[in-house]
Amino acid sequence: MRKSDQPPRVDRVVIAITELAPLRQMWGEALQFLAESQAELHALFVETEQWHRAASLPFTREISRVSGTRADFTLQRAIQVHKAAVARAQQQLQQLAAESDKELAFEVLSESDQERIRELVADGQCIVIATALLADQPVIKELQELGCRIVLIKE
Length: 155
Description:
This protein is of the alpha/beta class. The protein contains five helices and seven strands; from the N terminus they run βαβαββαβαβαβ.
């Protein structure tokens, strides 16, 4: 194989997710890239402000699926919903990593934390597998500007 025929070097594969991300599909995509390299695997749960925005509206209510009772959707409840979503995603990804015998770093990142984004990709070539919901978010735009290859997965 000629040097120009070799796939580009990949140092880090990043899975950028939200609570609605198709984790199994994104994991499968990540494994394809990991099969061709010894890249690090990193999962980012990208915090968006959607729950906080919803809680800030005076008419937002939460309706229980079990009892049908209604309650105001408060900032405190928004934080609870967000933490539960993060924990669920982290647990699912750690299970997938264990099944695949892969090491996985996991962190929660604000959608506008450009400094951490730059740190994450500063030391090598990076491929980012992201949910299509993040396509227009600052985190993806910053990663594109830093030269990362972006693979968007539809929900």
